[in-house]
Design brief:
Blueprint lengths: L10 E3 L3 H13 L6 E3 L5 H9 L10 H16 L18
Parallel strand pairs: 1-2
Length: about 100
């Protein structure tokens, strides 16, 4: 992306801190200054990049909570029951 845009990118919303780290690495390798870069998962490396000024944010999500919800959804699907949700995305059904 840097090459296609003449090294001019204003910010990056990365899917996780690992990808945000790849962005930071690319910026450093091209001798560029920090830009707004966010990730997810609140990894130790992501937090270090925040402290050093190379990453602007990260999102913490409880793995235990996510895993429990995913397991319950799978059990409900196997049993032919509706999957309980707490929100909806436009254009998608509320439950399976």
């Amino acid at each position: 992306m840097l090459a296609r845009n003449g090294n001019k990118i204003d910010g990056v919303l990365a899917a996780n801190d690992g990808l945000a780290g790849a962005v930071v690495s690319a910026l450093k390798n091209h001798g560029l200054k920090p830009i707004a870069v966010t990730g997810q998962d609140a990894t130790p490396t992501g937090v270090q990049y925040i402290i050093s000024g190379w990453q602007t944010g990260t999102v913490y999500k409880s793995v235990r909570t996510e895993a429990a919800a995913a397991a319950q959804a799978a059990i409900n699907i196997i049993k032919g029951k509706a999957v309980k949700t707490n929100g909806k995305v436009s254009g998608t059904p509320r439950s399976c």
